[in-house]
């Protein structure tokens, strides 16, 4: 392999890296993608896709129970963990293969191995090979951070390993309360696992609108999750039956499996970035400008490795914009203002724009429209389930600057609401939109009177 074969080297075959490589290849560039694991990255292999499959599996428990209220007589269902794990593995293997085919169709060379940088235009592999290109894109994503740093933390699993447990545990302790923690808490509780969520804050899901957090905490409790707020683990010890967690309030907790879901960190360790002058933050994130260029002109970075907005669609958009600019000669900058996100708890959370607190801090006047109601299916199933919706409106120009949904299919709804926010929709635009009845989403266009008017003195 010649040292001058490539116009672009992409390190990392996740969502952002594959998109950049594919688009650059489509423009006629000679591209190499270096990957040391499976093509598809965290999202496809051990993140969004397998997690959503497990979430869907867990929700059948509710479906079986709810069916009785609609006249169905369902025998007591049973669940087999090994079947789910095998089905998940088959699906992500299929998707990984499709990613490889996409690269090949666009003339991209896939190189197996763990790369490090040998210079601003060179990538080195452990077998002694060296690849060169005038442009290098770092798209290595992030990795779970085993934290807090306490005695015995090595006994905990990360979100990488939790998908492939040999057997379904009876007792699961989860450290953390971010979206990874609450999603796993919801799904394992519905699979029949005694689940405990341990976190320092007063409510789970820090960073989201506080009303969403309150409704989520209530739903977790209804699902049987043991919420241990305002506590942190101090050590993890092996016991005769599993593990014992000591907590800083003096109590202890027994578990068969401990999941550390306290966050992720950019995967830049051992790449030699510092040796060639690539500026990074303390957590290892590559500092980039609006064009995803690092402090070294020939080196770019997209996705979670930059620690901007760590979502798969963002990485894909960044990778595509990079390829358009550099190889398609099309100026393109990613807009981060109205990035929607979904948390696949049960019920789901969908959120876009500003929270109520953030809007009140940014604007002198904010109007809050909100509604909470029982979904139609719960009227016959008898399930104690509530839907909550909130619109945050800038009082000066009546623009909707935030939308937050807690309920079934919230992720699907928020995607469409995000289009309206991106187009600058006002509350009057929402009001003028005809409702679709009977749906949950119709509530988004039928809230007429503000529940709160927040005004700065």
Short overview:
This protein is an alpha/beta fold. The protein has helices spanning about 15-25, 40-45, 50-65, 80-105, 180-190, 210-220, 310-325, 355-360, 375-380, 410-420, 425-430; strands at about 10, 30-35, 110, 115-120, 120-125, 130, 135-140, 140-145, 170-175, 195-200, 225-230, 235-240, 245, 250-255, 255-260, 265, 300, 340-345, 350-355, 365-375, 385-395, 400-405, 450-455.
Provide a descriptive summary of the structure in words.
There is one protein chain. This protein has 457 residues and is α/β, with parallel strands linked by helices. The chain folds into three domains: 8-142 and 265-326, FAD/NAD(P)-binding domain, CATH 3.50.50; 153-262, FAD/NAD(P)-binding domain (3-Layer(bba) Sandwich); 341-455, FAD/NAD-linked reductase, C-terminal dimerisation domain (Enolase-like, domain 1, 2-Layer Sandwich), CATH 3.30.390.30. It is built from eleven helices and 23 strands. Strand 13 and strand 14 form a beta hairpin. Helix 1 runs parallel beside helix 4 and helix 1 (15-26) packs parallel to helix 7 (312-326).
């Amino acid at each position: 392999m010649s040292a001058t074969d490539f116009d672009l080297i992409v390190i990392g075959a996740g969502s952002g890296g594959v998109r950049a490589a594919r688009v650059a290849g489509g423009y006629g560039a000679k591209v190499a993608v270096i990957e040391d694991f499976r093509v598809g990255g965290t999202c496809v292999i051990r993140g969004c896709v397998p997690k959503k499959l497990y979430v869907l599996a867990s929700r059948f428990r509710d479906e079986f129970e709810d069916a009785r209220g609609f006249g169905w007589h369902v025998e007591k269902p049973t669940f087999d963990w090994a079947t789910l794990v095998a089905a998940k593995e088959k699906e992500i293997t299929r998707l990984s293969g499709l990613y490889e085919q996409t690269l090949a169709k666009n003339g991209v060379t896939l190189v197996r191995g763990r790369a490090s940088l040998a210079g601003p235009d060179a990538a080195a592999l452990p077998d002694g090979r060296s690849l060169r290109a005038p442009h290098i894109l770092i798209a290595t994503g992030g990795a779970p951070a085993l934290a807090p740093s306490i005695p015995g933390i090595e006994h905990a699993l990360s979100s990488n390993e939790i998908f492939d447990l040999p057997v379904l545990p009876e007792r699961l302790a989860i450290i953390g309360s971010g979206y990874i923690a609450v999603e796993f808490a919801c799904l394992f509780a519905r699979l029949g696992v005694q689940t405990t969520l341990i976190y320092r804050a007063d409510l789970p899901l820090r960073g989201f609108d506080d009303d969403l957090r309150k409704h989520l905490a209530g739903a977790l409790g209804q699902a049987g999750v043991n919420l241990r707020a305002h506590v942190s683990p101090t050590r993890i010890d092996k016991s005769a039956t599993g593990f014992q967690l000591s907590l800083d309030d003096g109590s202890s907790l027994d578990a068969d499996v401990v999941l550390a879901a306290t966050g992720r960190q950019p995967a830049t360790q051992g790449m030699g970035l510092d040796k060639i002058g690539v500026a990074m933050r303390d957590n290892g994130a590559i500092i980039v400008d609006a064009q995803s260029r690092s402090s070294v002109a020939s080196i770019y970075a997209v996705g979670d490795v930059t620690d901007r907005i760590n979502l798969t669609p963002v990485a894909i958009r960044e990778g595509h914009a990079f390829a358009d600019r550099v190889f398609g000669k099309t100026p393109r900058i990613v807009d981060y203002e109205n990035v929607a996100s979904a948390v696949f708890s049960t019920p789901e959370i969908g959120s876009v724009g500003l929270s109520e607190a953030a809007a009140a801090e940014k604007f002198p006047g904010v109007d809050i429209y909100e509604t909470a109601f029982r979904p139609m299916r719960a009227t016959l199933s008898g399930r104690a389930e509530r839907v909550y919706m909130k619109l945050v409106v800038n009082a000066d120009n009546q623009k909707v600057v935030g939308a937050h949904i807690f309920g079934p299919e919230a992720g699907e709804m928020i995607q469409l609401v995000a289009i309206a926010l991106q187009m600058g929709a006002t509350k009057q635009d929402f009001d003028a939109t005809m409702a679709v009845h009977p749906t949950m989403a119709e509530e988004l266009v039928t809230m007429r009177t503000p529940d709160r008017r927040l005004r700065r003195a």
